[in-house]
UniProtKB/TrEMBL annotation, chains A, B:
Key words of the record: Carbohydrate metabolism, NADP
Protein name stated in the entry: Nucleoside-diphosphate-sugar epimerase
Gene3D superfamilies: NAD(P)-binding Rossmann-like Domain, UDP-galactose 4-epimerase, domain 1
Regions that span the bilayer: none
Family annotation (Pfam families): Epimerase
SUPFAM superfamilies tied to this protein: NAD(P)-binding Rossmann-fold domains
Organism: Bosea lathyri
PANTHER family for the chain: ADP-L-GLYCERO-D-MANNO-HEPTOSE-6-EPIMERASE, NUCLEOSIDE-DIPHOSPHATE-SUGAR EPIMERASE
GO molecular function term, any single one: oxidoreductase activity
Ranges of residues in domain NAD-dependent epimerase/dehydratase: 3-209
InterPro entries found in the cross-reference section: DenD (IPR050005), Epimerase_deHydtase (IPR001509), NAD(P)-bd_dom_sf (IPR036291)
Lineage: Bacteria, Pseudomonadati, Pseudomonadota, Alphaproteobacteria, Hyphomicrobiales
Coiled-coil residues: none
C-alpha cells in the first residue's frame, strides 16, 4: 500500500513513518511506498523496507494537493498544520494553511472520482473545546473554540464528516491529547512545561515549572499518538457512523502527580531539578485548557493510551533515552 | 443607520424589511437606508421611510462582497443561503454559496479595517444537529450535521465566533426553528406539510398530511423569526460572551397538537380539509429531525417565541389573512 503523510517532517509524522519502517506493514498490508509531504524536507528513517519519497510543497497553494493525490495513495494521514500560537499571530496564514489546505486536500480527493475512496486520518485537537467546560468533557459536548487554530480544526472535523458521509473518502478524525513527553529541546509553547519538567531533569538539566502544581491536564505519549494513527488508519469505520471525529483517550493528572510519578521512576535527585518560577501569564493561558475527558466512544472503538503518568515517563525513557537517564 | 440584508428577497428577509419600513427605526436609531441583496431583485415594501436599494449579485463571486461592504453598513443581516435540498443535490453550489459566500462576506468586513465593526446577524439552522439526539436538545449539545447544508451552517457559526472574538465584527448567530405557518404556495420541501396542513385548509383548500400525527417538531412563526432578527441586531452582545450562536426559542408540539389547535381556532370544517396520505419517504426523513429544545441561553438573553400552536395560527391569520379565513 502507498501511504501519504502530510506534515511528515513533524514530530508525530516522523514517529509514524519510523513505526511503518519498523513494522513494514499496516493492518496486514505490506507498505510499498511512503510519501512524506511537508514545507521542509522530511528525513527518511534509517532503514526503510519501502520506497520513501519526501515532497516539499505548500498545500494551501491551488493545485498542490492534486499533485500529491494524483498517484492515488491508499491512506492519507493529514497532520499538516500551523500551530496554535502562529495561527493566532497570523490570521491569514492560519486560515490559509489549516482551512484552505485541508479543503484543497479533500477536494483533490473528491475530484479523482472513479471509485477512488482512500482512508483519510485527520488529526484534530482538544483546542476545539473552549472554556467554560465540565471537569470531565463528554463525547457529546459542543465545540466552542477560543482560538483560530481550534476554529480551523473544528471546521476540518465538519468537512471530514460531510465528505465521508457523501462517500468521497473514508475519514477518521482524532483529537490528540497534549503529547507528553515531547522529545527535543524546550520550546516556547505555553504547554511546553508539561514535557520540559520531565525531559530536562532526566537529561540532568534544570527545568522551570511556571504554574501551580495543582494544574490538571490531559496527556498521551508520542508512542500512543502513533498508535492512534495506526488504529484510525486500519479500524473498521463501519462502527463509527457519521460522527467521524473522536476525542482520543489520554491520562489526566495534576502537575503534582506528574512530579510524584517522576520521583517514583527516577528518584529525588531528578525531581530536585524542577525549579518553581511562577509565571502568571502562562498560568492564565493554562487555566482555559481542558483538564479531563470521558472519551467513551474512542475507548469502545479500541483506541488505547497510557493508564498512569509513570507509564508515560517509562515510554519516554525507552523510546528517547535508550532506557537510561541522568540520576 | 444603514442596514444591509443579504438574501433580502427571501420570505424572512422580505418580512424583516417590511417591519423596518413599518417601524422606521431599529433599536432607537432611525433607519436611513436598507440595501437588499439577493440573486433576484428584492421588491421594495409599499411605503418606506428610508432609501431602499435592491442589489442583484452573487456573493460567492470574488469581489462581490467588497462592493456591498464598501458603503460600510452599520448592520448586516446575513440570510442568504442555498436551501438544504439544493445544497444536498449540488455539492459544489452549496459549498460555494453557503460557505464561500459567507467567508467572502466576513473577509470583506475584516478588510475594511479602520475601526469598522458592524453588527452581523447570521441565520443558522437546527440542521446543525444530527440524530441521534436527546428528546430535548440542550444548549451545550454538539453539532453533528447530517446534511451538507447543516455542515455549511455549522462552519458559518464557527467563523462567526472567531471573527467576533478577534474583533473584526460583532456577530450574533441565530438557529431558527422551522418557520410555521410559512406563507405562499405549498412547496416540495420535506418540511412543507407542517405549514401546508394549516395554511391550505384556512384558504378552503385540502392539504395532505404525509406523516403520523405523533411526529413532534419545533416551530416559530415568521413574525417571531423577524423578532429574533430585530433582537439579535439590537441586543447588548456583552452578555453573550464568545459563544455567539444561539438556538432560538420555539414551540414544540406534535402534528396531532397542531391539528387540535387548528380545530380550536378555526373549527371542525377547516380541520376536515386535512387528508391523511402516509408517505414513508417523508416519514423517514422527518424521523431524523430534532423534536424539541431547551434554549435556555436565548431565553435568558431575551429572545421570545410563541407559547402555543394556537398563537402561531392566530399570528398567521393576522399577518397573512387580514384576520379572516374560509370556514
Amino acid at each position: 500500500m502507498h501511504i501519504l503523510v502530510l506534515g511528515g517532517a513533524g514530530m508525530v509524522g516522523r514517529k509514524f513513518i519510523e513505526r511503518l519502517a519498523r513494522d513494514g506493514e499496516l493492518g496486514g498490508k505490506t507498505v510499498s511506498k511512503v510519501t512524506a509531504q511537508d514545507v521542509v524536507a522530511a528525513h527518511a528513517p534509517a532503514a526503510t523496507p519501502f520506497i520513501f519519497d519526501a515532497v516539499v510543497s505548500d498545500m494551501s497553494i491551488e493545485g498542490e494537493a492534486e499533485v500529491l493525490i494524483a498517484s492515488r495513495p491508499d491512506l492519507i494521514v493529514h497532520l499538516a498544520a500551523i500551530v496554535s500560537g502562529e495561527a493566532e499571530a497570523d490570521f491569514d496564514k492560519g486560515y490559509r494553511i489549516n482551512l484552505d489546505g485541508t479543503r484543497h486536500l479533500f477536494e483533490a480527493i473528491r475530484k479523482v472520482g472513479g471509485g477512488y475512496k482512500p482512508r483519510v486520518v485527520f488529526t484534530s485537537s482538544i483546542a476545539v473545546f473552549g472554556a467554560p467546560f465540565h471537569d470531565k468533557i463528554e463525547d457529546e459536548f459542543f465545540t466552542t473554540p477560543l482560538t483560530s487554530y481550534g476554529t480551523q480544526k473544528a471546521i476540518g472535523e465538519l468537512l471530514l464528516a460531510d465528505y465521508s458521509r457523501r462517500g468521497f473518502f473514508d475519514g477518521v478524525g482524532i483529537r490528540l491529547p497534549t503529547v507528553c513527553v515531547r522529545p527535543g529541546t524546550p520550546n516556547k509553547a505555553a504547554s511546553g512545561f508539561f514535557s520540559n519538567i520531565i525531559r530536562e531533569p532526566l537529561n540532568g538539566i534544570d527545568a522551570v515549572l511556571p504554574v501551580s502544581d495543582q494544574v490538571r491536564h490531559w496527556h498521551a505519549s508520542p508512542r500512543s499518538a502513533v498508535g492512534f494513527l495506526v488504529h484510525a488508519a486500519t479500524m473498521d469505520t463501519g462502527a463509527i457512523g457519521p460522527r467521524r471525529t473522536l476525542t482520543m483517550p489520554g491520562y489526566s493528572c495534576t502537575v503534582a502527580e506528574q512530579i510524584e510519578a517522576l520521583r517514583k521512576v527516577a528518584g529525588e535527585g531528578v525531581v530536585a531539578r524542577i525549579k518553581r518560577v511562577p509565571d502568571p501569564v502562562i498560568d492564565g493561558i493554562v487555566a482555559g485548557w481542558p483538564r479531563n475527558f470521558n472519551p467513551q466512544r474512542a475507548l469502545q472503538l479500541g483506541f488505547k493510551a497510557e493508564s498512569s503518568f509513570e507509564e508515560i515517563i517509562r515510554v519516554h525513557i525507552e523510546d528517547e533515552l535508550h532506557g537510561t537517564f541522568v540520576k
